[in-house]
Write a structure and sequence with these properties.
Elements (H helix, E strand, L loop, with lengths): L2 H14 L3 H23 L2 H18 L8 H17 L4
Helix pairs in contact: 1-2, 2-3, 2-4, 3-4
Length: 91
């Protein structure tokens, strides 16, 4: 795992124990990537802000179970799933 990913994994581990400052660092590092990807999928800035917020709430809730892979990919999967759900037409 790259050094950057390893540091991010450490922050997620700390966030999983309730460390809000560690999660603030996770947000700082991942928010540009998450927002950019979500905006690309949903195509609307207001919706992208809401979906990004929802993604970080879910990341906070799941941070104790982030796993051992690349944390950026883990975060991207969560954000992308929520963005696709938001962009999908109602059935």
């Amino acid at each position: 795992m790259r050094e950057e990913a390893s540091a991010l994994a450490g922050l997620l581990h700390r966030a999983g124990t309730g460390d809000e400052a560690a999660f603030a660092d996770v947000y700082e590092q991942l928010s540009p990537m998450v927002y950019g990807m979500v905006l690309h999928v949903v195509g609307d800035e207001s919706a992208a802000e809401q979906v990004s917020h929802d993604a970080f709430v879910e990341m906070w809730r799941q941070s104790a179970h982030a796993g051992s892979g690349d944390p950026s990919m883990w975060a991207a999967r969560i954000a992308h799933r929520l963005a696709v759900e938001r962009a999908a037409p109602a059935a």
